């Protein structure tokens, strides 16, 4: 029986911070969480001066480290999943793009194949699929390809869900287009519908929530902006408690003050830190492909030739650092926006999302600058200490 203890660090739990605290891990599960100094005889992983958090769950990520979910490559998903451990991500939704039906089907088939066979100790775990498009507005495509935009229908979504073997957890859609309401009424109990790439008005957004829409995709990007007489999607997301909000906290997609406003309005239980990362994450500057479109990466920005932002190259631990800096909130308040909220939304919070007895031992240990020291996946230690 493989047993050890993470000890001497600050352990962040749903009940509060244990400082110092310890976490006992047995056979891939958390078997005990305690406060104070560990007094037993098990091997100790020393987390002195560090923060012990649940592993991050990224519910909107297209790729990174040279890979993309739309490549429909088994080895590519394997490499991406293994690489994500370096930023503390232990679970994620493989995210597709607005592309042809055939290409989306290929990507979904590959995701299911990898998910069903992946080694959950050695890589971030695919918790399902985020279908970003093709049911979006041609007026707010962002870095999506307008050629493949289509109207939502129950038949089309059920086709993709059949291909994905039930693994589609979130669909980004335009709330105002023909077919949207019918889809919500039929399918919103089994899929999270997230409003994004949309020109929906404030009233249309709130009406969509009444019919079952639950999320806003990458707030402030590819949606109707706030104006004092026309509050738009962003105003609805701020003020409607039925809307939970994704946000890319890289300081590029949204001004730090806008991030602070969103967090102030939504609080730490209706807010999801995401990366929306594309294949250039973790890579050098240069030219990359995103959904068949050329993306130029320079510094910390990824843009199409038109200048439009094309996803991000953000890492989850960097996003958490930015959230702390942009908002002035404490880590004790903030940690759940990277893990627990996502787990609750996906219905996996009995296994993941917080440090609690009997949950999976998916844990990240970070220094005061939110650099990853160690990621633990199903109890397996992966060391990323920097000098």
Short description:
With 387 residues, the chain is an alpha/beta fold. The chain folds into two domains: 80 residues, Urease, subunit C, domain 1 (Roll), CATH 2.30.40; 292 residues, Metal-dependent hydrolases (TIM Barrel, Alpha-Beta Barrel), CATH 3.20.20.140. The chain is 25% helix and 29% strand.
Task: Provide structural commentary.
Strand 17 (293-298) and strand 18 (301-304) form a beta hairpin. The chain has two domains: 3-52 and 354-383, Urease, subunit C, domain 1 (Roll), CATH 2.30.40; 55-346, Metal-dependent hydrolases (TIM Barrel, Alpha-Beta Barrel). The chain has ten helices and 21 strands. Strands 1, 2, 3, 4, 5, 19, 20 and 21 form an eight-stranded mixed beta sheet that branches. Helices cover 25% and strands 29% of the residues.
Please tag this protein with its features:
387 residues, Urease, subunit C, domain 1, TIM Barrel, 10 helices, 25% helix, 29% strand
* CATH superfamily placement of the largest domain: Metal-dependent hydrolases
CATH architecture of the largest domain: Alpha-Beta Barrel
Number of helices: 10
| Number of self-contained structural domains | 2
Mean pLDDT: 96
Backbone shape: globular
Rg: 20 Å
N-to-C terminal Cα separation, in Å?
A: 32 Å
Strand content: 25-35%
- CATH class placement of the largest domain: Alpha Beta
User: What kind of assembly state do the chains in view correspond to?
Assistant: single chain
Helix content: 25-40%
Biggest sheet descriptor: 8 strands, mixed
Overall strand count: 21
Class from helix and strand fractions:
alpha/beta
* CATH topology-level name of the largest domain: TIM Barrel
**Low-pLDDT sequence parts:** none
């Amino acid at each position: 029986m493989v047993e050890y203890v993470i000890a001497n660090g600050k352990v962040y739990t749903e009940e509060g911070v244990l400082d110092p605290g310890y976490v006992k891990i047995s056979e891939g599960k958390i078997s005990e969480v305690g406060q104070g100094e560990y007094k037993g005889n098990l091997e100790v992983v020393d987390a002195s001066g560090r923060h012990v958090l649940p592993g991050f769950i990224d519910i909107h990520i297209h790729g990174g480290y040279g890979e993309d979910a739309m490549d429909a490559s088994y080895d590519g998903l394997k490499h991406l999943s293994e690489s994500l451990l370096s930023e503390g991500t232990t679970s994620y939704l493989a995210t597709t793009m607005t592309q042809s039906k055939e290409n989306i089907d290929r990507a979904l088939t590959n995701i299911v194949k990898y998910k069903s066979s992946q080694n959950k100790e050695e890589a971030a775990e695919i918790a399902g699929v985020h279908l970003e498009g093709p049911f979006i507005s041609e007026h707010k495509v962002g870095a999506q390809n307008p050629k493949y935009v289509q109207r939502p229908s129950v038949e089309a979504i059920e086709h993709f869900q059949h291909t994905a073997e039930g693994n589609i957890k979130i669909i980004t859609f335009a709330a105002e287009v023909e077919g949207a309401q019918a889809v919500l009424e039929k399918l919103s109990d089994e899929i999270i519908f997230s409003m994004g790439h949309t020109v929906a008005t404030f009233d249309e957004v709130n009406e969509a929530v009444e019919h079952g829409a639950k999320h806003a995709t990458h707030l402030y990007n590819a949606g109707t902006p706030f104006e004092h007489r026309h509050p738009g999607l962003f105003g609805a997301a701020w003020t409607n408690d039925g809307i939970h909000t994704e946000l890319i906290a890289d300081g590029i997609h949204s001004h730090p003050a806008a991030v602070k406003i969103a967090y102030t309005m939504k609080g730490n239980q209706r807010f999801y830190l995401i990366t929306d990362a594309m294949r250039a994450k973790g890579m050098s500057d240069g030219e990359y492909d995103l959904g068949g479109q050329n993306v130029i990466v320079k510094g910390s920005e990824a843009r199409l030739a038109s200048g439009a932002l094309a996803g991000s190259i953000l890492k989850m631990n960097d996003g958490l650092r930015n959230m702390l800096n942009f908002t002035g909130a404490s880590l004790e308040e903030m940690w759940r926006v990277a893990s627990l909220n996502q787990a609750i939304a996906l219905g996996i919070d009995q296994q993941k999302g917080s440090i609690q007895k009997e949950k999976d031992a998916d844990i990240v240990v970070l220094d005061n600058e939110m650099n990853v020291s160690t990621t633990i996946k199903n109890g397996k230690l992966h060391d990323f200490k920097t000098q």
